[in-house]
Amino acid sequence: MSDTTQILRAFDEAAPTRVRDYVDLLKPRVMSLVVFTGLVGVMIAPGHLHPFMAALAVLAIALGSGAAGCINMWYERDLDALMARTANRPLPAGRVAPDDALALGVLLSIFSVLLMAVSTNFVAAALLTAAILFYVFIYTVWLKRRTPQNIVIGGAAGAFPPMIGWAAVTGDVSAISIALFGLIFLWTPPHFWALALYRSEDYRRAGVPMLPVVAGPRETKRQMLIYTLVLLPVALVPTLMGSVGWLYGAVALVLSLAFIGHAVIVWRTADDASGYGTARRMFRFSLIYLAALFAALPVDQFVSRMLAG
Questions:
Q1: 245: phi > 0 → left, psi -120 to 50 → alpha, else beta; which?
Q2: Are residues 220 and 190 in contact, defined by beta-carbon separation less than 8 angstroms?
Q3: CB neighbours (10 Å) of residue 190?
Q4: Residues 71 and 220 in one domain
Q5: Rounded to an integer, what distance in angstroms lies between the CA atom of residue 172 and that of residue 117?
Q6: Over the stretch 202-260, which tens digit does the pLDDT of each residue have?
Q7: Dist CA 46 CA 41 (whole Å)
């Protein structure tokens, strides 16, 4: 076999791996939830947006989220190398060059904002820009390594998508879109602190001042319980405002009580590794909680229209 043939075969075998590595830089798991909440914002907003333009708007949200995640991985590659959960990511594992990751993140950021501006309006594009810049500069660069409130303040970046989706249709920001922003903003701390509880050694080794590392498990659990309690009335705001009906309200009430239940169980378990199974279960439930809550919004609207017409 010639050297050229061997090189080509090696290239063909490596290509799928390289593609997966670049996809992994965009944090697809995080992106999926971001895209879904942005899509719901588009679906429940009053007015009409052509389906093709709506698809482009959702694509812009996805690309903006992936771009921010890519730059985050580039900036935090030294931390990722120290944590078991992230050590095999493309950058710390050496499968992608840092300059390539940064270039991808910057180019996707610019393209996503331009795509949003062209396909919808400048308000949505401005909100998308704010979300990307907030995640990169406020959370990643400024807060992550400096304060245990990193995820509290930085969580605002992940709360933008429903506002962006809403603005893509309406061209403005309304009380209901702000309420959805608040819902995700308050959901983020107990969601990530549950993860931080059972990954606290990773964060301690990397020197990241997550709340369990700085304040300890007991204070973290107390804060988680407080946030889930505050989250319950906020989750009911769309129904109380009359934007959706009581189908969503019932789902929000049941799920929020279940979320509080998980927080109580976590609070009552041991403050050591033996009790971290409950934190892991709360983390997993928190993903179901947010996804189900946002799924209930368009379903409620659909059912209401069916009953009315």
A1: beta
A2: no
A3: 29
A4: no
A5: 14
A6: 899 889 999 999 999 999 999 999 999 999 999 999 999 999 999 999 999 999 999 99
A7: 10
